[in-house]
């Protein structure tokens, strides 16, 4: 039984690796992938908090922490008496217990004012575990590949401020609903999401000539305007200039997050006219009249339809799914699908799936650690929750929701080929196999029809494993399993 390249690309290039659930792809690889475009979008089984709920909980915790400090100060100055057991008299609030560190939206909640227990926050299921469980069993792995790709295109990170708390919610709210929708709609949802506004400092950007700017002598922050042009739409070679960055930053002023506790929009994105830079703006040679919140929507519509956006977005997609050496003809066909469909990402993905190049090109891209864990879950039939996925990703150089810059994670074919990275993969595979080797009969699996994912030589080596654990480790470290 020789290796089936079409099957390998169906479940590797367009999926998350092979498992028993992927057997239909053996007989009809292209049909298996195409059919996934028509399946309903999958959703997490676990109940995860929305971004607005997370921000509200954060502010509530800060309020409790502030009240606790005030109560302690009153007690220390004699302004309140401490009852036995720690309760405060004279109307002061009882001291809240100290929270254990917990994961919430990808951020470890153990800093300063956040060390106060609120049930809904500390009980929030881990975003990473929830996704790995979905990835291990979904019948639409292509959707999860798209989810990872577009989450990397519109990158936010847990390494910065309040946006850290909502990074997981960002992916669920701004990316997942639109992976087979319009690029314009995804861009709008992503750019105007609390995580993005915090991550790229737009909440600190104020029009110098706005009402607030004249009083506080505040100024523009160009981070979001620059990345919208360079990373989200046109691309670095898309024809924009510094004046366009400044103008777009002016357009974006006023977009912020409402953190007023008693507001109807508490925890949500709002537009505040008093912070918005007044007057017309010119971007890419087009003049936009002053229109408040509608200014950015008008600009984004034009950016989403710009030829440079079609080229850049689809070029990045071709290189991410196929190879950094994807042909010009493939890139042009995807750009044409983008333009002809007005940015319909389902149509663009269909064009990619229908491309012969996507099926005949050898798998050359080393899986990022996140996909390595997902592919392992696929082969096991359940999420690899031991060893700790968060610690494992950190060790392998791809900490969860913590890309090193707004560019996202590297997408070059051998981006993850480093001495430390390979060693950590080997260590993780051995540990994972020790903890999970009894979950699946690896020798039987590679002798079954799904074994055509591997070469004859790889199957021979796996069969020679002295134990189920060793056989699984050999499979996880095989060339076929490591590359897609």
Give a written overview of the molecule:
β1 and β2 form a beta hairpin. About 10% of the residues have low confidence. The chain has 25 helices and 6 strands. The protein is mainly alpha-helical. It has 4 domains: 156 residues, no CATH class; 72 residues, no CATH class; 111 residues, no CATH class; 54 residues.
Q: What fraction of the residues are assigned to beta strands by DSSP?
A: under 5%
The structural class is mainly alpha
Q: Radius of gyration, Cα only, in angstroms?
A: 25 Å
Q: What is the count of structural domains?
A: 4
The number of strands is: 6
**Strand order in the sheet with the most strands:** 1-2
Unreliably modeled segments: 80-125
Helix content: 40-55%
Descriptive tags:
single chain; mainly alpha; 484 residues; 4 domains; two-stranded antiparallel ribbon; two-stranded antiparallel sheet
Q: Strands, helices and their partners?
A:
Elements: H1 5-11, H2 24-27, H3 29-36, H4 51-77, E1 103-104, E2 107-108, H5 119-122, H6 127-137, H7 141-153, H8 167-175, H9 183-191, H10 194-199, H11 211-216, H12 223-232, H13 242-252, E3 255-257, E4 269-271, E5 281-283, E6 286-288, H14 294-304, H15 307-321, H16 328-340, H17 345-354, H18 357-360, H19 369-380, H20 389-395, H21 419-436, H22 442-447, H23 456-463, H24 468-476, H25 479-482
Antiparallel strand pairs: 1-2, 3-4, 5-6
Summarize the structure.
Helices cover 50% and strands 3% of the residues. With 484 residues, it is mainly α.
């Amino acid at each position: 039984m020789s290796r089936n390249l079409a099957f390998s690309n169906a479940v590797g290039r367009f999926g998350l690796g092979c498992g028993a659930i992927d057997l239909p792809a053996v007989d009809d690889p292209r049909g298996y992938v195409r059919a996934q475009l028509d399946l309903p979008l999958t959703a997490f089984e676990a109940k995860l908090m929305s971004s607005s709920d997370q921000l509200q909980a954060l502010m509530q915790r800060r309020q409790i922490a502030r009240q606790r400090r005030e109560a302690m100060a009153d007690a220390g100055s004699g302004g309140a008496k401490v009852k036995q057991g720690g309760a405060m008299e004279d109307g002061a609030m009882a001291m809240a217990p100290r929270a254990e560190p917990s994961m919430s939206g990808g951020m470890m909640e153990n800093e300063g004012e956040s060390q106060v227990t609120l049930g809904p926050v500390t009980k929030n299921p881990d975003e990473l575990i929830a996704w790995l469980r979905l990835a291990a069993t979904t019948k639409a792995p292509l959707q999860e590949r798209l989810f990872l790709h577009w989450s990397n295109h519109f990158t936010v990170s847990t390494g910065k401020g309040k946006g850290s708390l909502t990074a997981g919610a960002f992916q669920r709210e701004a990316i997942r609903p639109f992976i087979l929708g319009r690029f314009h709609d995804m861009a709008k949802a992503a750019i105007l999401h609390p995580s993005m506004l915090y991550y790229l400092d737009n909440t600190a950007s104020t029009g110098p000539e706005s009402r607030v700017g004249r009083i506080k002598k505040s100024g523009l922050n160009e981070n979001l305007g620059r990345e919208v042009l360079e990373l989200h739409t046109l691309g670095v070679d898309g024809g924009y200039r510094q004046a366009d960055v400044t103008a777009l930053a002016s357009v974006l002023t006023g977009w912020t997050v409402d953190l007023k506790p008693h507001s109807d929009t508490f925890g949500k994105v709002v537009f505040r006219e008093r912070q918005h830079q007044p007057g017309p703006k010119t971007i890419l040679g087009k003049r936009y009249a002053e229109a408040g919140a509608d200014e950015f929507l008008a600009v984004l519509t034009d950016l989403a339809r710009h030829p440079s956006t079609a080229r850049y977005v689809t070029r990045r997609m071709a290189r991410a799914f196929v190879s950094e050496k994807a042909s010009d003809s493939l890139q042009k066909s995807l750009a044409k699908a983008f333009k002809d469909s007005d940015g319909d990402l389902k149509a663009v993905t269909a064009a990619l799936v229908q491309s012969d190049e996507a099926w005949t090109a050898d798998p050359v891209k080393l899986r990022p650690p996140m996909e390595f864990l997902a592919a392992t879950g696929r082969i096991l039939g359940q999420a690899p929750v031991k060893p700790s996925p968060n610690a494992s990703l950190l060790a392998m150089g791809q900490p969860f929701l913590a890309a090193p810059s707004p560019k996202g994670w590297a997408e070059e074919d051998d981006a993850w080929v480093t001495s430390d990275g390979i060693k950590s993969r080997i260590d993780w595979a051995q540990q994972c196999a020790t903890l999970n080797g009894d979950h699946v009969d690896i020798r039987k699996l590679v002798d079954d029809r799904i074994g055509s994912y591997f070469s004859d030589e790889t199957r021979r080596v796996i069969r020679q494993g002295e134990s189920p654990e060793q056989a699984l480790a050999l499979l996880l470290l095989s060339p076929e399993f490591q590359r897609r």
